[in-house]
């Protein structure tokens, strides 16, 4: 190893784990579609739906990442974080963040790791049955449709944005 390579290694910061929020910074609800800008280097995602709603409402649009402020015209959907979010919704658990390891996977020490990886856990009742009592059930809201019928909505339900 050359002297230059050793100097570079001395100056590098190695991040073993990072805590990533699953909550949208705009709507304060669970992220719907987790994205980053194509030039972003961070693991934290933001909600595409909320970001686009905000941009369409602004008179002077600044298409930059809300996290790192880099130009943000193209978005990359983080399919792994989408899978985590889908599992959290399916299990109806209240989770605000997750710890990721260097590879971007849920850290084995994070309590969520075993729950989302275990295929036998299908809903909140299974979460409790398997002894994961530290997780609370996500609250639900009741809404009425046009006919007066009650509809149970998850607290984190959102609307779909169609760009024409």
TrEMBL record:
Signal peptide: none annotated. The keyword Disulfide bond does not apply. GO terms for cellular component: chromatin. This is SP-RING-type domain-containing protein. GO terms for molecular function: SUMO ligase activity; zinc ion binding. Keywords: Metal-binding, Zinc, Zinc-finger. Residues 9-90 form the SP-RING-type domain. One of its GO terms (biological process) is protein sumoylation. The keyword Nucleotide-binding does not apply. InterPro entries: Znf_MIZ. It comes from Paramecium octaurelia.
